[in-house]
């Protein structure tokens, strides 16, 4: 599954450093698309062009304050991901809570960066997240897995499984999906991959693959879905190097 990805990643690495303004424009393109798709998956109704103008500081008429905040907060969360990558910091529960705090800032401050104290359900999913009293233990188990056996996995597999296991725990009242996609990209970016965009058009396939992973512990479909998106991002970066 990863042979082609490895070849494309090696080719991209051989062409680095990319021109400064090319990097800047790629970053701006991915910032808009990552923010738009991640929010749209969760029901935000801003279009991609409306997302772009909100990122530029313009208010869009007829849209809620929450929808605007989801865009602004996501940009800040991406900046935090980039900071962690640049400092080469190891993933911690504290970082995960910080990421989530940025995602929900001004939307639900009481629960921003705080594990849930209530039972929640995932609409349309067979999987039921754990009871609140189990969250701390399961998050610690996730971090133990990440610091041990996950180290031997391909970065794409590791990132996909980190996302899937995290969102299965569903540790927060709201914002779990956005945080999971930020964690996926944090893991990939640490390894020199460009960010990936889980596209809203693939939302059904994405949810089905996650539910299968949570119910049967078979992560293959979800890893494959992420791998396709990784290849798309690598192709985008390689297209500017010719």
Automatic annotation (TrEMBL):
**A molecular function GO annotation:** ATP binding
Q: Which Pfam families match?
A: Fic
Catalytic-site annotation from UniProt: 170
Cite the binding residues for ATP.
174-181, 206-207
Ranges for domain Fido: 91-228
Chain positions of site Important for autoinhibition of adenylyltransferase activity: 42
UniProt key word Coiled coil: no
| Matches recorded under InterPro entries | Fido (IPR003812), Fido-like_dom_sf (IPR036597), Fido_containing (IPR040198)
Sorted alphabetically, the keyword list is: ATP-binding, Nucleotide-binding
Is Nucleotide-binding one of the keywords UniProt gives this record? yes
Q: Which SUPFAM superfamilies match?
A: Fic-like (SSF140931)
Give the matching PANTHER family. FIDO DOMAIN-CONTAINING PROTEIN, FIDO DOMAIN-CONTAINING PROTEIN DDB_G0283145
* UniProt-recorded name of the protein: Fic family protein
Q: Give the organism, scientific name.
A: Niallia endozanthoxylica
């Amino acid at each position: 599954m990863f042979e082609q990805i490895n070849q494309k990643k090696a080719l991209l690495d051989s062409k680095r450093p990319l021109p400064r303004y090319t990097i800047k424009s790629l970053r701006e393109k991915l910032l808009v698309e990552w923010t738009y798709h991640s929010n749209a998956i969760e029901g935000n109704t801003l279009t991609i062009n409306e997302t772009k103008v909100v990122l530029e500081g313009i208010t869009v008429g007829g849209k809620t304050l929450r929808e605007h905040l989801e865009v602004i907060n996501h940009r800040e969360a991406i900046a935090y991901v980039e900071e962690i990558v640049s400092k080469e910091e190891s993933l911690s529960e504290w970082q995960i809570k910080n990421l989530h705090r940025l995602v929900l800032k001004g939307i639900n401050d009481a629960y921003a960066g705080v594990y849930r104290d209530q039972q929640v359900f995932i609409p349309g999913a067979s999987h039921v997240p754990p009871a609140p009293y189990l969250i701390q233990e399961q998050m610690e188990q996730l971090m133990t897995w990440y610091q041990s056996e996950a180290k031997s996995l391909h970065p794409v597999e590791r990132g996909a499984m980190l996302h899937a296991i995290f969102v299965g725990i569903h540790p927060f009242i709201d914002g779990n999906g956005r945080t999971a996609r930020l964690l996926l990209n944090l893991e990939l970016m640490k390894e020199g991959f460009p960010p990936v965009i889980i596209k809203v058009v693939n939302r059904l396939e994405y949810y089905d693959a996650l539910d299968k992973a949570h119910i049967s512990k078979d992560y293959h479909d979800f890893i494959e879905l992420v791998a396709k998106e990784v290849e798309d991002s690598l192709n985008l970066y390689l297209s500017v190097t010719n």
